[in-house]
Sequence to fold (323 residues):
Amino acid sequence: MINLSNEKIPVGISACLMGDSVRFNGGHKRSRFCTDILSEYFDFRSTCPEVAIGMGTPREPIRLVSEHPNDDNIRAVGVDTPELDVTDKLKDHAVTVSANSSELCGFIFMQKSPSCGVFGVKRYLPNGHPEGTVSGIFAKEFARRNPLLPIEEAGRLNDAALRENFLVRVFTYRDWQLFRQQEVTAARLIDFHSKYKYLVMAHSLVHYKELGRLLANLSHDVESIADTYFEKLMAALAKPASRRMHTNTLMHLQGYLKDLISADDKREMAQLILQYREGIVPLVVPLTLLKHHLNHFEDANAYARQQVYLNPHPYKLGLRNHL
Fold:
């Protein structure tokens, strides 16, 4: 299982999602998934960039504007007062938050916000016509300065696959932070990777092979190799695990039981994996049976039982019940 301390994991979040009345109209966009469920595991660090830069509540709304569709110089200006330009202040606040947030393991942003939106924020031309979508000013600058940090929008967490993928990355990021609290040695790095091999396999076979090659020679500069390893690990997990890839991973783990369980148990396991592959049952069904058998023969399956893939996040969250 993933290495979790007893402390809650620090995660950044847009303040309106915590129920703070900081939106332009004096309202909020409380996310009950964040406040009622994730708060049991996360120590949320909230910020509202627009309030932080001195804009009041309520306030004139802002929007993103560029001179023409291909113009990368996108500005955050007042809807009613175009002369109100807060672009540079929002970027500066992103710099400040980044500098003071090295302990964060993720960030949840408010969708569609001209400051906090990560995907699909409307961009306008000077004549007021909408023209395509971009990222919010604060979110874009923050993400640029934290390229490995798991980032997601609250609205997208309603999607079961995106929700599970984000949580996998946050808990992995935290596990790596704990790993780096001690001296990095070749043996410790190999041990860390050995736990993550099948989780990586479920997300990206390309990175699975790359990480294996990277760790094949640890005779020098282990610190540098560790940094490269983490970059590739997070890149791998950023790729959503498909049903086909999960099936492949389950079949590999099933192989550890081939000489231990009966023919009937093998058939049952294979049937449930196939039913998952065909979308008949969720991932949790074959996974639960697999863990049952691995735990029954725990002495013979120490390597398989340590795989983070089996428990990449708290079981209580039920994230794999809908995959």
